[in-house]
Amino acid sequence: MRVSLGRVRQLFTMQRVLTQNVARLLALSLRTKLSPSVRAAAVNMSTLLVNRPQYSWLRELGLGEDNDGVYNGCWGGQGQVVTSYCPANNEPIARVRQATMAEYEETVQKAQDAWKVWADVPAPKRGEIVRQIGDALRGKIKALGSLVSLEMGKIYVEGVGEVQEYVDVCDYAVGLSRMIGGPILPSERPGHALIEQWNPVGLVGIITAFNFPVAVYGWNNAIALICGNVCLWKGAPTTPLTSVAVTRIVAEVLERNHLPGAICSMTCGGADIGTAMAKDERVGLLSFTGSTQVGKQVAMMVQERFGRQLLELGGNNAIIVFEDADLNLVVPSAVFASVGTAGQRCTTTRRLMLHESVHDDVVERIAKAYKQIRIGDPWDPNTLYGPLHTKQAVQQYLAAIDQAKQQGGTLVCGGKTEDEAFAWNNEVKQGLSSSIFTKDMGRVFRWLGPKGSDCGIVNVNIPTSGAEIGGAFGGEKHTGGGRESGSDSWKQYMRRSTCTINYSKDLPLAQGIKFE
User: Fold this and answer.
1) CB of 305 within 8 A of CB of 205?
2) Which end of the chain is least crowded, N or C, by CB within 10 Å?
3) CA 421 distance to own-chain centroid
């Protein structure tokens, strides 16, 4: 396994050209750094996109010039007014009034009251409500996907695909609502029954990031609801319109079924709201998606109150290509995993390890593929690489490429190349996603085994990104250890009780103890 210095530079040079093109795209609309007062004046003088005929579909999502950023059965928002901008052209879309701390307190109280109603609804009936939420999302999937593209910056097909994830997990949760439960265990004592009882944790706080402003909330929301919880959502401050639009769709379903709207509450805001959620003992589970740095702070605040947390943090994901790999799978996988969502996914490929026998061929093919990638307007169906979310993201990305070039070197391993490659995959602090390309079935199962990848997502012959909703999503080490979406992730949203029931007239003790 060899990664030569010259080829490392060539790979990073191609990535930098790609990124600089994106930077130039953003520079057209981000030439100057305006002060808050000047920026506000510019917004007032500009025509908001929501008022332009070509964006009339925003009205279909219930959005206007000024939008309430608090929902707890009633709409409100008396905090700071923020303007959401389109990353592709830096034009203002619309404004959102964020929550005050008083409104946060009111929302938590209403959510607690709503839980008293929701917890009494049988799980299959809760599943029916989630089914209706999925159907409501289906009805507005194109408009909502367009909003994700407009506000976040990802290409249109990815925006629609993200809403589809929420729809899919709703479908999954409907079936799960008739299946969750614990086992009946054999008791060693005559006339006794031993069972596991699962109950909701109560209020689930959900803090999501800008890169998936719909899907990650959907993973948490659909599963939390069928488990009998109520939800309080704080979306990313830079994608508040998406949070408002999604909440409006969900709220309509709840209101149509004569259920308290506070079952799915929302408080738009910044770090003050997030900190309050982390420290609030009334929040039975806090699900946080974001950077490892902020996630660590959140974890410490939640742990200080002995609370429960679900962390989905950053990744440093690798693709390992062995000598027997099918390069027709490798090249499109590597390109998609590095270019998809403009490289802003937590599962984005950041490291590529190539066996020396395929090294030159893979590099040449990737270079050719990069040249064919269309960069530009995220609504153009031919575009594969849209803008980065913010100007700061462009600067950080370029700095990361420079740092990677400076750290480039020659890596040569001896006879045990497989062990060396696995070790390289595991040497980073994060443990989210990983992938190898090989036809050797023995190697495949060693990769999946205890001495293989230490990540939460371990793939073979597919990219590091693009996970399905049926499996548990999450990672190890500095990625946080949380699991969302499928498999038995539902257990994170419930508390377990071991229950012993004596239906006899005797009182035998466990372990044969006599206490007479």
Assistant:
1) no
2) C
3) 28
The C-alpha angle with vertex 465 and arms to 222 and 27, in degrees rounded to 5, equals 100
Give catalytic status of residue 312 as yes or no: yes
Is 62 in a helix, a strand, or coil? coil
CB 147 within 8 A of CB 245: yes
The reply to whether the predicted model has a pTM over 0.90 is yes
- Give the strand order in the sheet containing 70-71: 75-76, 70-71, 264-267, 230-234, 203-207, 285-289, 308-312
Return the axis-axis angle of helices 215-226 and 156-176, rounded to nearest 10°.
Answer: 10
Locus of tokens 């808050």: 36
Vertex 471, ends 469 and 472: CA angle to 5°?
105
- Give the position of tokens 């090249």: 331
Q: Say if residues 149 and 106 touch (Cβ distance below 8 Å).
A: no
Closest-CA residue to 484 (of 189, 285, 344, 271): 285
Tell me which of 312, 420, 427, 484 is the catalytic residue.
312
